[in-house]
Amino acid sequence: MSNKLTLEYQNNPKAFIQDNDNLKKIANLTGSNIDDIKVVLPANTYLNLDEQLELLQGKFLDDIKKMAFEYIIKAINK
Questions:
Q1: What is the pTM of this model?
Q2: Which helix (H) or strand (E) holds 23?
Q3: Are 6 and 51 a contacting pair, CB within 8 Å?
Q4: Cα–Cα distance for residue pair 64/70, rounded to 1 Å
Q5: CA-CA distance, 18 to 37, in Å (whole number)?
Q6: What does the alpha-carbon distance between residue 41 and residue 46 come to, in Å, rounded to a whole number?
Q7: Please, are residues 1 and 26 in contact by the beta-carbon 8 Å criterion?
Q8: Which end of the chain, C or N, has fewer beta carbons within 10 A?
Q9: For every residue of 42-76, which 3-state class applies, written as one string?
Q10: What is the DSSP letter of 41?
C-alpha cells in the first residue's frame, strides 16, 4: 500500500476496510479477493514509510546482506 493508504488505514482501520475503493486498490495490486482482504487486513501490521525506512536501513538490512553472503559462499563451495 502507498504511504497515504497506510496512514489512512492506521488512523481508522474500520473505516478503511468499509471503503470498497480501498479494497479494490489492494485487490488490483495483489490479485486477492476483496472478501479475503476484509479478513486478512486487520490481522496484519502495516508500517508507515518512516518505519519501513528505519527497518530497511538497520539490522534487517544487515541480516539480509549476511544471509545473501552466506548463500553465495555455499553456492561457490558446491
A1: 0.58
A2: helix 20-30
A3: no
A4: 10
A5: 11
A6: 9
A7: yes
A8: C
A9: HHCCCCCHHHHHHHHHCHHHHHHHHHHHHHHHHHH
A10: G
